[in-house]
Write a structure and sequence with these properties.
Layout lengths: L2 H6 L4 E7 L13 H18 L3 E5 L12 H15 L6 E4 L5 H11 L3 E4 L6 E3 L2 E3 L3 H11 L4 E6 L5 E2 L5 H11 L3 E4 L10 H11 L4 E3 L8 H4 L5 E4 L15 H11 L1
Parallel strand pairs: 1-2, 1-11, 2-3, 3-4, 4-7, 7-9, 9-10, 10-11
Antiparallel strand pairs: 5-6, 5-8
Length: 262
């Protein structure tokens, strides 16, 4: 049974971000993997205590993100996910920057996560960290081969990138649906920037019965504008101390946000 899928039947699911500190192999790693774990665990427990409905673990600190990372980075990410997964009963997802589908599936499968965020699923995108070809075909073949109920949440027009060739939104959404994804994420242009309500309404219109998640820019001031058109949201900056994405999760901000949802 997939915990996120079951939860979506009952409520709008707020997914809090566990932003990992830089891991081995990335330029800003500080040499202490235990420190990475402790910071991640602290954020996880703050999200739990504040009432978040799920969480997603991401190698957020590994900037600048790469299309291909060193083996040590992949193993460190897998270790952090495995350790943190044991510390919560909430639905857990992962996002391994940037769009390394094979690593995401391998880590997700072995750590028994509930969902994976696949950023470039049905488009070809270009950004400061490289060129990315649609990963949906590869992801769905791995899912079929290993036959595990891990939800795939696919971005439409993923943040921090631009289309190599423009696609109409309805075509992109239809491609995500036909590709077999389990949910659609809509974002603004960068982290912390929200898409317009009209954009979200349009995605919801094209998504048919597929769950739609807001992937950036949602906060306790604008959340009620989006709630009628989404099934959930991935929330980072708004739940952090001083609403700064680089700070730890602040349990008071989580409680304040969740109070608006309820």
């Amino acid at each position: 049974m997939n915990a996120l899928r079951e939860k979506l039947k009952k409520e709008k699911v707020i997914i809090g971000m566990v932003h990992l500190l830089p891991l081995p192999g990335s330029p800003r790693y500080e040499g202490d993997l235990n420190k990475v774990y402790e910071a991640g665990l602290k954020d996880l427990k703050a999200l739990e205590k504040g009432g978040a409905g799920a969480l997603i673990i991401e190698n957020f600190g590994d900037v600048p993100y790469a299309a291909e990372n060193e083996l040590i980075n992949k193993i460190a990410f897998a270790q952090m996910v495995a350790l943190l997964r044991k510390e919560t009963k909430l639905p857990v997802g992962i996002n391994y920057q940037f769009n390394d589908t094979e690593t995401e599936w391998a880590v997700g499968y072995c750590s028994d996560v509930d969902f994976i965020r696949c950023e470039v699923f049905a488009e070809n995108r270009l950004g400061p960290n490289g060129m990315f070809i649609a990963a949906g075909p590869k992801m769905m073949r791995m899912k079929a081969h290993y036959n595990k109920d891990i939800m795939i949440l696919a971005d439409a027009n993923v943040k921090h990138t631009f289309a190599m060739a423009e696609q109409p939104l309805d075509f992109t959404i239809e491609s995500i649906i036909e590709g077999g994804a389990d949910g659609i994420i809509v974002t603004g242009i960068t982290t912390g920037v929200n898409p317009s309500v009209e954009d979200v309404k349009l995605v919801k219109k094209y998504a048919h019965n597929l769950p739609v998640f807001l992937g950036s820019g949602i906060n306790d001031r604008n959340v009620n504008e989006y709630l009628p058109y989404i099934n959930g949201a991935i929330v980072g900056s708004s739940l952090k101390k001083d609403h700064n994405v680089n700070n730890p999760v602040d349990v008071k901000n989580v409680k304040k946000f969740m109070a608006k949802i309820k």
